[in-house]
Structure formats: structure tokens, C-alpha cells
Amino acid sequence: MKQIQSKDNLVVRQGMKVAAGRDKTRILLEGVHLCEEWLKRYGPPESVLVQASAVDQPDVVRLLAANDAARQYLLADALFNAIATVQTPQGIMFVATRPIPAAITRLATTALWLDRLQDPGNLGTILRTAAAAGVRDVLLSAGCVGAWSPKVLRSAQGAHFALEIHEHQHFPDIRARLDMPVLASSLGPGARSLYAGALPAACLWVVGNEGQGVHPAILADADQCIFIPQSDAVESLNAAVAAAILLFEQRRQHMQV
User: What GO cellular component is one of the record's annotations (predicted)?
Assistant: First the structure.
């Protein structure tokens, strides 16, 4: 393990660049759980950054044992904290190459399209929900918050590694590759209740921007618009909550008991 004391060190400068979102080819994984999940799916990262005061913690020791010592860097606490995006870091971070999924050729199993979603917490929660519901492919339109930002990664709690996340997608291109209908979340005229009839076993669900909802062009191209019945006490549901209700109602209807 190499010791680093200077903020001018290349490893420190690269870590700060990744944490700030200025490196689009790498991601920062903070904390024991995310590092463990990365190792399970992808193996050793590019580099392991360790906080000097945490080097003897059991969880950190265990993660270090699973990585080549040549990839490990011991950082003075001040340097480690300068990279970390949380106030109370857990003493270990991975810098890793951002996974790039294969291009979509056809889609025939339930997937999720997110239209200009802005809030990192919402996106992370939706990714975690999608993984729990058995969804494999999540597609993000242009204008969505970055799926691999530290806030989204923390919110999703490892769900990224159970999904194929396709960013900067163009809806007409994906529409032409679907072997299933498009169901869009909407409160507009013509939408039917989620509970009014049977849902298809597979579809592309569309959940829209927190304030503006689904883009009108996508609503017009959807096979069916769906609304979730609610009281008049609030105008609408949170996007992450709506996505969970939609996905798990479909899962409920098609569960093999």
C-alpha cells in the first residue's frame, strides 16, 4: 500500500475529479457496502483509497485483503475527506471504470424509461426499486441526472450492479426496438386506472420529470397512459413512489404463486 500526503498527488487529483463528476469514464464508490457490491460483480477496481485513521477497521481490512496491494493508497485523513462526498465517510473508497452496457438491439422484457428525471435521490430510489421488481434495463433520456453520480450511487445502495443502465437515450430509437407495449404514467385525459384491468406481462414503463411529467410526444406515442388513483389531498405522487407502485402492481399480477 502506498502512502499519500500531498494534495498534488495524481491519485488525489483524479479522485477529486471523479467525485466532482468531471471524469465521465470513472465512478467513485464510497463506503463498505458499495465497495463490496462492486467486488461481487466486477472484481478489483482501478484504485482503493483508504483513510489513514480507518486502516485497521475490520470491514476495511477485509476489503483490502480482497484487492491487490499495488492498487491501494493510504491517504491522510484531510486528503481522504477532500475527496469524499459525505460528511462521515466509512474509511474506504473505490475509483472504478464506469460500466458501459451493450447497445440495445431488441427489448422484450419489462424495462423502465425515465424522462428528464432531475433528483438524485429519486433516481437512486427508482433504480433500487427496479432491481427489486426484477427489471433489468433502465433507460434514461437526455436531461436526466447522471446515474453514476455519488448521490445516486448512495441512494441506490448497490442496485446499479444488478441493472443495465442506458443513459442519454432517444425515445424514437428505443420505440423501434420494442417487442412490447409502452405504458406511460400520466394524470391527463384518457389515462386509465392502474387497477382497472390486466397489465401486460412485459412492457416499457415510462415515468416522467418531477414537475412536468412525461414529455407530450412520448405520451402521444404510448400504447396506454396509466394513472394511480389517489385522494385530492395532494396534486401527484413522488416519481419514485409512482414507479414503485407501477412496477410492483405488474409484478403482483404476474407472480407465479
Answer: cytoplasm
**Which residue, of 97, 119, 140, is where some domain finishes?**
97
- Distance (Å, rounded) from C-alpha 182 to C-alpha 138? 14
Q: Which three cell numbers stand for residue 25?
A: 469514464
Residue 257 has pLDDT above 70, yes or no: no
Residues 170, 37: Cα–Cα separation, whole Å: 30
pLDDT attached to residue 256 = 72
- Relative to beta strand 47-51, strand 72-75 is parallel
> Whole-model pTM?
0.92
Whole-angstrom CA distances from 147 to 168, 210, 253 are 10, 16, 29
pLDDT tens sequence across 111-121: 999 999 999 99
Classify residue 102: in a domain, yes or no. Answer: no
Query: What's the mean per-residue pLDDT of the chain?
Result: 95
Residue 76 in grid coordinates: 491522510
Cα–Cα dist 244/132, whole Å: 9
